[in-house]
Design a protein that fits this description.
The structure is a homodimer.
Chain A (H helix, E strand, L loop, with lengths): L2 E9 L3 H19 L2 E6 L4 H7 L5 H8 L3 E6 L14 H12 L4 E8 L11 H4 L3 E8 L9 E3 L3 E9 H16 L4 E6 L5 H14 L6 E6 H10 L6 E4 L1 H15 L6 E5 L5 E5 L16 H13 L4 H16 L15 H11 L1
Chain lengths: ~350, ~350
Amino acid sequence: TKHYNIAVLAGDGIGPEVMAEAVKVLTAVADKCGFSVNLNTALVGGAAIDASGEPLPAATLALCKTSDAILFGSVGGPKWTGLAPDQQPERGSLLPLRKTFDLFCNLRPGHIYPEFADLSPLHPRISSKGMNILCVRELTGGIYFGEKGRTSTDAFDTQRYSITEIERIARVAFEAAIKRNNKVTSIDKANVLQTSVLWRETVQRVAQHYPSVTLEHMYIDNAAMQLIRSPQQFDVLLCDNLFGDILSDEIAAIAGSLGLLPSASLNGSGFGLYEPAGGSAPDIAGKGIANPIAQILSAALMLRFSFGQEQAAQLIEQAVQQCLSQRIVTPDIEPNSSYNTVAVGDAVVAAI
Amino acid sequence: TKHYNIAVLAGDGIGPEVMAEAVKVLTAVADKCGFSVNLNTALVGGAAIDASGEPLPAATLALCKTSDAILFGSVGGPKWTGLAPDQQPERGSLLPLRKTFDLFCNLRPGHIYPEFADLSPLHPRISSKGMNILCVRELTGGIYFGEKGRTSTDAFDTQRYSITEIERIARVAFEAAIKRNNKVTSIDKANVLQTSVLWRETVQRVAQHYPSVTLEHMYIDNAAMQLIRSPQQFDVLLCDNLFGDILSDEIAAIAGSLGLLPSASLNGSGFGLYEPAGGSAPDIAGKGIANPIAQILSAALMLRFSFGQEQAAQLIEQAVQQCLSQRIVTPDIEPNSSYNTVAVGDAVVAAI
Ligand SMILES: CC(C)[C@H](C(=O)O)[C@@H](O)C(=O)O
Ligand SMILES: CC(C)[C@H](C(=O)O)[C@@H](O)C(=O)O
């Protein structure tokens, strides 16, 4: 029987609470599908800073290196906001993990669920048409990792992209589009940036290998506008690191259901980091009311992308869908709901 | 009597149609308020490319240099999209104008008008609370104008900001906040960018001279989200060039009424370029149905910021408000409206 080593980094705030539910679900689905999971926990983020002074301790990184995938909770909170940028929980853990494991590809689905269309902050005349976007974001290049510096009078950052970097993320977008609605919208600012001109040309060239897919180019400013006006026009959104950071959060806001949105960050050999799109939500941490669905769906993405356990992934997704249809959801989704974090996790397990 | 020389650059698409209305309104208000305007037209954008091969001909630039302000229409269209980036109508005219005249400060108000809240793509539970944001965008620095280049394998762009550049735009934001609701939200990505760290520190220091104003810092990704969730939390938004480009268009989308939104781009000596927030709308050009209000309100901003004619500016704004209240608007605002571009312009003149 197959055996998977999973690094479980729950982090701060609601991280541990929602992670406990994802672990329950993972164990249940492994039993059912005949594989086994070996779950090893380690500290990350603020919890790691408190224990060892660093957001990503060597022991945590070592565990990740001997694991088949990383299941990540969420990090950060008011306690650590005064630290220097690269010592902060979010940046100090996520950026080095992305770079160390070459997690160049970030996938973030954004849905308006018909049952919960009213969660969307958009007008019903728009949200009723639905939204089903996959945001494909380049995650290890661009202005995040270019040369940067500072003098007594000014500061600079460099955005750099190579053709190779653009090609590999573009391929992911087109491959995804083939399995979805055959449309890729590539985001850039080619009227201003040289990196965007290269981005546009390269994406155009990659597109020639995918004749069934319609490719559209859109400026970032126009995209920020169009997502609000008619999100249903999009299928796969292909973005560089910075534009993807902005638009994926805009999409999450439009969906209105941050607690339901998972994400996957992958490299070229199937290794990945899986985490909810939302943050550590310190305001509700410890109350037992956090929504565990995004963390549970992140585990499903791990089964699909890192372990090739498609059937197990679908089992989880169907179980989640069943709970949603029965309105077994936490109060962020339905204000008067009496289901808490554990109850929702239990219901997903029961449905599996 | 005061006398003002205005460079009138109508541009492409609906530009000439809406400009004609703004010119009528300007002439009317000048008569009424006892100053005189000398309006000189010149080619810009695609129209200039067709006539002379360049989006910003020397003669046009020369006219701007001998004028007291520039009233700009809109540029661009499908005919010219195949050109190299710096030959394109938009970029090839606006960026050199901004740089030549040191127009470092872009002001873009974004409103949800109570009478037309339903134009907003947001859910009524949000749009009914209103929105009244002034976006203050740095316009001559950052990644737009930093060193950029390209090799056979990659490309780069540089974002650079000096303390001096940040200070001068920050001061504009705080001065504006004092006359509004005393809140500035400064946008950055200080967890990733060195320029953002400098931005945050500098804005913080400038804020000390404005003790009555509340300063808040927000990451760009979170801002893209918060604008959709609760736009009423914002008063003045302070942004660098790139983030301001994105968020000002997101705000325009949220307002839902692009045809009503003017903008001003100013330097330190009162010179400015005034233009509608929307584009050249080639799809409706020549039909006489384009909304002239954004162009008319841009003229009002010119009277206020470049000429100090506050009373004349308010006269225009009140006349526009009166037309809106009487629903004398083009079909983009009210689909069944029978008022066309000229009729709305006439109504504004009549109200003055
Ligand atoms: C914490 C931060 C560095 C990170 C990013 O900007 O990539 C976060 O916003 C994200 O999107 O995962
Ligand atoms: C045309 C383009 C270069 C310009 C910009 O990005 O500044 C436009 O989008 C704007 O906002 O005025």
